[in-house]
Give the backbone structure.
Amino acid sequence: MPTLVIDGQEVTVEDGLNVIQAAEQAGIEVPHYCYHPGLSISGNCRMCLVEIESMPKLQIGCNTRVSDGMVVKTTSERAKHAQAAVLEFLLINHPIDCPVCDQAGECKLQDYYMLYGAYKSEMQLEAKVQKGKVVDLGPEVVLDEERCILCARCTRFCDEITQTGELGIFERGDHSRISLFPGKKLDNPYSGNVVDVCPVGALTSKDFRFKSRVWYLEKTPSTCTRCATGCNIDIYHRQGEIFRFRPRQNPDVNEYWMCDEGRHWYKSFQQDSRIPTPLVRDGLSFAVASWDGAGTAAAQAVRRTQDEHGPEAVAAIVGAKATNEEAFLLSRLLREQIGSTQTAGLAWSPADAFHDDFLIHADKNPNTHGLKSLGLLNGGGEAEAVLSAAEQGQVKVLFILGADLVSAFGQERIDSALGETTVILLDTDYNGTTEYADIVMPIAAAVETDGTCTNQAGRVQRLSQAFPPPGEAKAGWEALALLSTHLDGPDSVSITDVFGELTHSVPAFTGLTYGKIGLLGAPLAGVGS
Amino acid sequence: MAENVLLRHEDVPDIHKLDVYLAHDGYAAARKALTTLKPEEVTAQVKESNLRGRGGAGFPAGVKWGFLPKDSDKPVYLCCNADESEPGTFKDRAIIEKNTHILLEGILITCYAINAHTAYIYIRGEFAYGAKCLERALAEAYDQGLFGKDIFGTGFDLEVYVHRGAGAYICGEETGLIESLEGKRAYPRIKPPFPAVYGLFGCPTIVNNVETLACVPSVIKNGPDWFRSIGPESGPGPKIYGVSGHVAKPGMFELPMGMPLREMIYDYAGGIKDGKQLKAVMPAGSSFPVLTPDEIDVHMDFDSMRAIGAFLGTAGIIVMDEDTCMVRALEIIDRFYHHESCGQCSPCREGTGWLHKLLVRLEEGNGKVEDIELIDRICTNMTGNTVCVLADAAAMPTQSYLTKFRDEFVAHVTQGGCPLKKVAVQPEAA
Ligand SMILES: Cc1cc2nc3c(=O)[nH]c(=O)nc-3n(C[C@H](O)[C@H](O)[C@H](O)COP(=O)(O)O)c2cc1C
Ligand code: SF4
């Protein structure tokens, strides 16, 4: 644990840090472009030059390990001069097209330019080196060679992280440019990350570019629900519309990265298929209902069945996209308000779902592990058993929470299982299963609710509400609390409340609090972090 | 010196042939080293000889070898830097083509000293003939058991490979060379770690210049004291001086270290051509400061040159007569660095191009007086802040031209172009 002085401030840091990292811990940002904590040190941009006492030459912070007694000056006259000079070099051939550049607002050239003061441009426009514009690199990414500062983060990403090596630097000196190797396309499953690592506007996302100025967007930290890995993300949104997902750093889960599939997953939350209001079956079609009306109808169906066929005739299937809180509330409702033990988890993924040994998991559900901890999933045949029971007339009322049974079991099976069953469905979107429903309760999608999911490694991570759900949809936990009150059960006032109750009744969650999970998640009891 | 060491072909015709070389004591030093000395004794002798690197920086060879980690279980490599691309420099080429075996013998002894069993000769791509000479000489030597397995029956094995570069100045920078040898772009590496610790394929590696290695046999053969007696003690030995430019008899001269620059120009190279006056001389290739006629009484060795703010570099002496336009001369130099910057570091990538553009502008008569200050400022900002010293190598001569020939730069502005009006500026190389 070396103790050193950075800009007059004494700090003690872990072994093995470089000056940029150590300074960061002291709350000091050393400007840099090529350095990225998830990539090898390249040392090419020269922006992080700092003064280190007893070293005659300025040193680059990224390649300088801190040591005990070191005295670092990141803002001395010499250091600042060198940093400003590097910035000036970087701008000499830069097109300065910020008004039409998609990166504006999150560009490190812009940021540092403001920091170091405006220069009058010493290079006339026509004298600048001209290079390729709008170069198509692959399905995700477009390159502007003139904006590129050749920091080589993107090439290092493709060499070191995906090890696919599509990108290289070609030509020499100020004619250097990033390009694809002959015959290659940048279409690996993680290609979108190069856009995130690009500190300037050279690499932009085909999906996001020109859709919105970044300063108009709000950012909400959350977790990707595309698969069981649960990469940490930021949701960028405005007025109930999502513009992009970006990975949020979590050393224990996804480091700095996420997959392209997850990146595009935001679109799944804003399709035309969203269910806007509660619905109650009216012959062959649905009638719009109030929440109270739907709740009352559901309670009536439950109580009638209970009286006629006993509590076990009421069952529930919970999809593994439901949060821990939703799954907990529904299973508790069945157990305590109805007296039924028939709550089954369902974690269905397409058999051919793409997966790899990096981030992309074959299980396309965000909360399979959570359902297991809640005792709803064990061998995996639980939902199947409920359907068989329904086929045999033993299940008369079925709650379905966030599960499209038709995708999982096929139309025919569901026809025969649910033909005679009263189905109370809680979901976000219309899907193949909706038409079997008798009562429909629209709930918030993962980006519209608070709650937790447990990823494949047993790490409990938070979803955060970026904005309220559309129409009259409610957060799943709120809808279930409403159902509970209609069945004379307890109400829930907040997500932390529900989580608290969950931790008290489910041993695996012992010791966790909603606050403790924080932005980076926390492992379940008995799971190493 | 009685007989040439490095340019021995001038005394002994056909010395590049193995039988001739052997007949003139060839490989005797290697035999002596391998059969009578321990590797560390060889290193000690080279250290004692004060042999300093001839690639430009003058780093003591024996000291460098001593940096190899003692406790590493990785193989050690020797890279012979034969990329010779410094402007005005053609000494290594002569050794490679004409005195091939002394280089090979130097490699053999060095490998023995540093316990390397593989050596690469990284030769500039354009030296096609040189590469052929090396291959031919190696084949002969392998035939005689001088390379390969169990050399001189000592159990010492050595394989030597000739690797032709693909043509870039930066491949001569030792870590650029290593990257290139590994099959990558010759992007110089950040140091530390230095090659002696983390070099070729991540293994301990020594990179030495051709001329440095060619000096090694004479150290072993004649002893360190002999070597130190040739020229100044602090950086002695035989040295090839190359004189080019506006001299009557351009050429290569092997002489002791520390020759007066004036003698090199006026005696050995026959003085300025056509009876003209000397205007400027670049004594060290193009990467170091230019000297004016009143500075040429300096002795050409590492320390004497440093004492006047100059460098020995490669001792490639480029002579310019009174008719030379210094703006144009500098424009050509900076065009070279612009063309050769690998483009990795921001200050070098952008700075070299910027300098060149400003010089073209001055030479064409479109410059402003402020441009002179701007050039100077760019140079200052390029210096000392990059991965390798190519940026410094561009900045140093540039600033020296500005300082020592400032009037000419100003005249280009005030007179709207070159007062000497000699040759049109060539278009910028793309
Ligand atoms: C841009 C650049 C180009 C260089 N080119 C050469 C070269 O062509 N040949 C050479 O021997 N050294 C060259 N060097 C020096 C090498 O980096 C290295 O210092 C040298 O090969 C070490 O050998 P020595 O210690 O025997 O001199 C170059 C250095 C730089 C910065
Ligand atoms: S200083 Fe120039 S040549 Fe050397 S590594 Fe940097 S960009 Fe390349």
In short: Chain B touches chain A at residues 168, 170, 185, 187, 190, 338-347, 349-354, 357, 374, 381, 384-387, 430 (CB under 8 Å).
